[in-house]
Structures are given as C-alpha cells and as structure tokens.
Specification:
8 strands; 185 residues; three-stranded antiparallel β-sheet
Length: 185
C-alpha cells in the first residue's frame, strides 16, 4: 500500500514524521494484508457510445461524462473488485473499540482496494489493451443506481460475493465497480 496515499486519505501531509502515526499506519497495513481476500471479475464488451450514454448490448448507461470518457471506443472493460467481508468486520470492531485505529484502517483499506484495481488494469495492459481512465457509478453524472446494471452484466453476487443494498451501496464496503474504455480493437 502507498503510505503517501494513506496519509492523503487521512488528510495529513505526506511529509509527516510523527513516529506514532507512521507506526500505526504500518501496523494497520500489516493487518490489512493479513485479512484481505481480494477478488476481481472483469469482462470486455462491445459497445456503442452516443452523446450522452454508453450502450452495452441491451444495457444503457446514461451519463454524458462517461460517454465523453469512452468516446471513440468500440469496447469497454467492466469490472468489479472487492477486498472481502473480513475488512468490514475489522472496521466494525475497531469502530467500537479504537476509533483512531479505525480511521487509519479505513485509509489503508481505501489504498488497498485502489491497489487491487490498479493491478487489474496493469494485467489488462500487459495483455495488450490500451485503456482509458476508469469510471465508476456514483461519480459525476453516472448515478450510483447504475451499479445494478453492472451487477447484472457481471453476475457479481454469484461470482465474487458482492451484493448491493437498497441504496446501491456495495457489501463488502471496500469494493469497486468501474467501466474502462478500451482504445484498441
């Protein structure tokens, strides 16, 4: 995990030299690495991009900004990633017993899920894909309810154990869904 990124999530200067904070970050990173069970699932789909939507088969993602992000692409990669349920248990436990550790743990877990997503992108790039920036439901004008469509397309509940609440929040909480434009055919 990236210590500077963790410090950014904590809204602390990356130049901090507080030995107690740095030791707590290191301890939390170690605990995260012991408890996470990352799972990812991705598929490449043919797509059509209009002025204000991305169309994958019969599924329409309504978002002008997403359409701008994938404009010119004939394919997209849609993926889901999770760190697993143990992370949620850790956050609940420390949230009740050690709020400082819980805050640092939250930052470490955020860094870890980004690391997992970046790793998936690196794998796709190593397979020769040229990728655009990833775009997730809940960003700008891509409503969080669009997660339902991603879950349906990928069968995320069945395949990697991700579920959606009624408000379209993911469980486990340290999970990501995203759409990435593929530039090359």
């Amino acid at each position: 995990m990236n210590r500077n990124e963790i410090l950014r999530y904590l809204r602390t200067s990356s130049k901090t030299d507080d030995p107690r904070l740095l030791a707590l970050i290191d301890s939390c990173c170690e605990e995260v690495n012991q408890c996470v069970n990352p799972k990812t699932l991705h598929r490449i789909f043919d797509c059509t991009v209009t002025e204000d939507s991305l169309i994958v088969g019969d599924t329409v993602f309504s978002s002008k900004r997403l359409a701008d992000t994938v404009k010119g692409c004939k394919r997209v990669c849609i993926f889901g990633a999770t760190l697993g349920t143990e992370c949620d248990r850790l956050l609940r436990t420390y949230g009740a017993t050690d709020i400082t550790r819980a805050a640092v743990l939250q930052a470490c877990l955020a860094s870890k899920i980004e690391e997992v997503c970046d790793g998936l992108e690196d794998t796709l790039k190593s397979e020769g894909l040229v990728l655009r920036q990833r775009y997730s439901p809940g960003y700008f004008d891509l409503d969080i309810t669009e997660n339902k469509k991603i879950f349906e397309l990928l069968e995320l509940t069945k395949r990697i154990g991700l579920t959606l609440t009624d408000s379209c929040q993911m469980v486990p909480t340290k999970s990501v869904t995203a759409i990435i434009g593929v530039e090359n055919d």
